[in-house]
Amino acid sequence: MTVSRGLVEAQSARFAGVDPLLPAVVPPPDGDVITAALPDGTRVAGVVRRQVHDRMSAARLWSATEVWELTPLLGGAGAAGMDALLRAWRRWLDRAGPAESDSACVLTWPSRDVAAGRALLDHGLVPLSVIAVRTGSPVAAAGPGAFAIRRATPADLDAVLALALLELRYSAMVGSTVDRPEAAALKRRALAERLAAGGPAWLAERDGIAVALAECALVTSEPGNWTSTRLPPGRWGYVNCVSVLPGARGAGIGQQLMAHAHRELHRLGTVGTYLYYNPPNPLSSVFWPRQGYRPLWTAWEVRPAGALR
pLDDT tier at 145 (50, 70, 90 boundaries)? Predict the structure, then answer.
């Protein structure tokens, strides 16, 4: 079953009015189609995909094991359309059978569409993370500080891993991250590969000790890839992990480290940078707006999946 092209076009037009940085809406991925009707006869639709992550998949560090993800196509229906579609999704889940306890219902929606947010909250979903973007010019280099910033190398794996795990364990208390028994092994493997490949990552050191990490990547948004459904076209810097040792916080190390990372990513030809952060996180929800980031998309989630109302 296919979804109406008219819904895709109408939703693309609506998104353009909500936030000019949103890319054009593309047809949804393959999956199970659900539909709903509003009292005036307007119809909305959505595509549901179920994914079960393997135990040793890195995705389980930021996701439930079993995920039911909805891609809504509301056209121009707005909050009423979202409410009707979520009711239909609840009925569809009842027919699909019980989900695992380690499960979630997830959907991603433009952050500035606050009217739809009301419907999402009413159905039990919460805004656990946002995709935030920064498109401003890098700040000028600061004067000499009490710490040095340098590019991380494969020889720094242990220090990088320790800082990355610190960030993961903190985020697990305030967002969608999960501190699983496999976390250290999964992180070590991923970081070893990125450092060996020369991925952009920087350490801030004080007296020769690594006290902060900015681990990044370069991502291209182009037609046909997943990134193009979230970001305007171009080469983007992705900020995957920023972590500062608790005893070093409050001295401006994180700010100066990110200023350095922004300058270096800009030098590599990026049109901007993006990252994920958790709105409930009392540190990142303050830090990232101060660095020039603002929400573009919000990931709404309810765990377990059966708790969707």
Answer: low
